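Person: I have long wanted to understand how a fold can be written as tokens. Underneath my words sits a plain record pairing an amino acid chain with its backbone structure tokens. Those tokens are not coordinates but codes from a learned vocabulary of shapes. I should like you to check that the lines agree and flag anything odd. The protein I mean follows directly.
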Amino acid sequence: MKITIVGTGYVGLVTGVCFAEMGTNVLCIDIDVAKIDRLNRGVIPIYEPGLENLVKVNVAAGRLKFGTDLAAVLNGNDIVFSAVGTPPDENGSADLRYVLDVARTVGQHICKYLVFVTKSTVPVGTAELVRAVIREEQQKRGLQIPFDIVSNPEFLKEGAAIDDFMRPDRIVVGVDSDRAKTMMEQLYKPFTLNGHPILFMDIASAEMTKYAANAMLATRISFMNDIANLCERVGANVHEVRKGIGSDPRIGARFLYPGCGYGGSCFPKDVKALIKTASEHRYEMRILQAVEEVNERQKEVLFHKLSHRFAYNLTGKTVAVWGLSFKPQTDDMREAPSLVLIEKLLAAGCLVKVYDPMAMTEARRLLGDRVTYARTVYETAQEADALLLVTEWKEFRLPDWPALKQQMKTPIIFDGRNIYDKAELLSQGFEYYGLGAR
């Protein structure tokens, strides 16, 4: 079986590499000529643990190739995956122009039966739009070549995407033909041999499943952030509350950790898109509207704690920020809480020093020379009036506390992920402020 993946971003590249690793012949297509040239030279455009090595191995084996011309390769392909971006429009809806561009190219050049798979996160109803575009382009050519549309949403966690793809919790496939179902079963068979389930359903349900999953996870995060903020005010401890409710099997312990807000390419975009989809169907998603509002407010929580500590006068204060990416094990800063925090600090007159193990290049692109970039965790803390932990990278978990204290002007730590033990830091001579406890 030969497949083509259109789009070499996070989803497309991981998908292509993992299929190739299982022996499938994969061609990854992108209109960005420079990116394809870099990939052909072994330069990976994103950071994802294990990805670079898998690309090199499968390119060397001849199973993975990169190109720029989708039209030229359609004749030899059985399945085309659309993994192009669906960025949010100004009104929150998903921008489908790139998905429909892929469909248009397929319709213009299709010459034998193939399966068109939407891998990008797309609103319910997108499959029918894709089907209509392909048919329209065929009609212009005076042809009626058969094809099928499939929805196959991804459920990859950045920082663990390779493992998620190779050992999935579930594989969701929306189909409306037996022929397409058989082909997708064949393609995914290597991933289901160890009992990982493949769930076939109608196309609209598959499209909705992706949004519903991300919306539920985002809801749990915002719920716990709200609970943490209330715990501080009533004298409760969110750590104990989390354990108390997480032990209930109806609730479970995952995604119950308070923090300084979620970010990334999925949760913020998908929550907005689902709210917009509901609005288009004259329905109001009140819970998700609150989830989004809570999250945006939570991104400012560390700033407000810092401001309160310094009597609302931060002018001239040197503030160290540990962690810039929206989560560990990635260099992705899309919708990252660190960006909101840093903008607030700069507006308040702070000198901001930052460090992240992987996201420094992206930070320079987004922040320019408005902040100071440190080379190590300890260099970040030099002469700092306070240190704010935003992203829980492993190298931040157990620093040399005496060495850190010696670097800082005043040893004050604001822990945006609750990874430190308050009693330990107090014994080391630090002031400590976490989330959800006094």
Observations:
- The chain has a mean pLDDT of 95.
- The longest strand covers residues 2-6.
- The first helix runs from residue 10 to 21.
